[in-house]
Amino acid sequence: MRSEPASLRLRGSFVVNVTQTSYQAEENHNITLEWTFTTKPDRSIIIIHDKLSVLCHEEEKMICRILLLLILTSCVSGSFVVNVTQTSYQAEENHNITLEWTFTTNPDRSIKSLNILCDLITNSKQFVLYHVHEGVEVSESQDAKFSGRVQSDKDALREGRIRLQVSRLRTDDSGLYLCEVNTDDGFSVGRCQLNVTGKLIQ
Predict the structure, then answer these.
(1) pTM over 0.85
(2) Which of 126, 184, 187, 199 could lock 113 by a disulfide, CB 3.0 to 4.6 Å apart?
(3) For the chain, which residues make up each domain, given as ranges?
(4) pLDDT (0 to 100) of residue 12
(5) CA count, 13 A, side-chain hemisphere, 181
């Protein structure tokens, strides 16, 4: 029996609907997950994730990406989960802060199956904070604004923890931080908010 369609509306008339809110399947079978969204003739194709694509106009890119990540996270079944130790952080300009996520570990899983992408998403832009591909950190992917300001705890990764110290904070580091973790055991996303305030001049 199909569930009633659900929708999430963001800005104006742009809407993404799910044709089903719940799916049931057996192991080793195939399944098709389906979403529908508002279209316009001037939209171009962008890649959201290596397993997802969507038609979006450039100005809607951030909205589409966040929206589909949230929908995908809600549809993922099983025991693989990414959590944040804090959902909100507050810090002052020029101070340091450590953002931390945890994810489900599996002693039989090779570190080479670990893929991580952590981004800062602001009102208008997306910045790559940290990227791991098949267990190896890809520093070339990091956005220039974070160059030399992010340190990762490599030992913590084997324990299922992503610990990123961001130094010399700026007010424009404020925003939504998304960490996507993709392994052989599943895919999940953790998100937290950081607000960096300027120092008071006395």
Answers:
(1) no
(2) 184
(3) 6-75, 82-197
(4) 55
(5) 24
